[in-house]
Amino acid sequence: MGKGSLVTLVEAPVRTRWMVAYALAMIGVAAGWFGPIQILLPEQAARLAGGDGKESLLALVTAIGAAASLVANPLWGALSDRLGSRRPIFVAGTVVGVAGLLVLSAADSRPLMIGGWVLVQIGLNGPLAALAAMIGDRVPERQRGTVGALFGVAQIVGVVLGTALAVAVGQGAPGYLAVAVAVPALGAALLLIHREPVRISDRTALSLKWPGSQFAWAWLIRFLLNLVNALVLVYLFYYLSDQVGVADAATWVLVLTVVNVLFAGIFGFAGGVLSDRWQRRRIFVAVAAVVLAAGTALLALVPVVAVAIVASVLVGAGWGAYVAVDMAVITQVLPDTETRATMLGVANIAGTLPQLLAPVIAAPIVTRLGGYPTLYLLTAAIAVLALVCLPRLRALS
């Protein structure tokens, strides 16, 4: 593969069993990430650093892990393109990620905790890169909305599963071991039924048009809408306690998260199916930007519990509308099919980078530059900016 330009032929529709196996694999990857993030890592940081240092240790661990993730995804993608196959990347990355979870299960020091989480981040970016590339490799254009929505919705389900495993089995080593088993178990079915697509020689590849600017605009829109989502969530606990004034902020964070996830899942899957049926992607991105702007503006202007619930419905619905077509949009504007996994790795930076930037942007605004009203009005403006960028995606239907 390495010396020749190869292009996949995507004609036959994927079957329901492939979609189910694909969704299960993505749920496993997401559970491997968010089980630790939601519960296991915070508990471990408290145990290792004590009450006074737990926040700093957790911030250090997650920041180093996020930095490793930024580098790992494009590298896994480039290696996948070099090999011309997704399966080895899926397997190798899963092995590394599970090894990281096992290190975390036994970690009794800060360096081991950091090292374990870095291994998880580096490893699980392998199957993530492979799963993203499989959409372009295996799924015809007319099904990419549905499968792309599964990609996004499965991540949401994985958050719930990973958190539930950590709660049900227990914190510490049992929780990490349960997640370490779940990740490969949920990915096994896809490995068994997935077939690498038929490929053709490089003469056809040379005739492909290079839509580089289209990819750049799609990347920017993905970055902006992911930043909106990250800014909504980053200080939600403090917004509810300090601005809204609820007595039990943790309970209300859970309630709003469940509302958000429920509507994101409904609108994500329904939107993916409809976008395939209509063969339209642009309208879903436009609706997502408008609804996200409305939801975040409500948080800024009316800080009461009832309105926060309505805002969570809107943010969930808007995020779901975008998730419905996100992967379909990105795969449609890829610059070059022979570097599909590499460029999808670059595209995934647009989803990871906002998680790093959100606290940096939000902290000075909340503490010195107008507080939560300013933060959420800025967030609404970012959603509108994504809408303004949309007409530049001329290749998008």
From TrEMBL:
One of its GO terms (cellular component) is plasma membrane. This is MFS transporter. It comes from Actinoplanes cyaneus. Keywords: Membrane, Transmembrane, Transmembrane helix. It is a multi-pass membrane protein. GO terms for molecular function: transmembrane transporter activity. It is found in: Cell membrane. The chain crosses the membrane at residues 20-41, 56-76, 88-107, 113-135, 147-169, 175-194, 215-238, 250-271, 283-302, 308-329, 341-362, 374-393. The keyword Transmembrane helix applies. InterPro entries: MFS, MFS_dom, MFS_trans_sf. Pfam families: MFS_1 (PF07690). Residues 16-397 form the Major facilitator superfamily (MFS) profile domain.
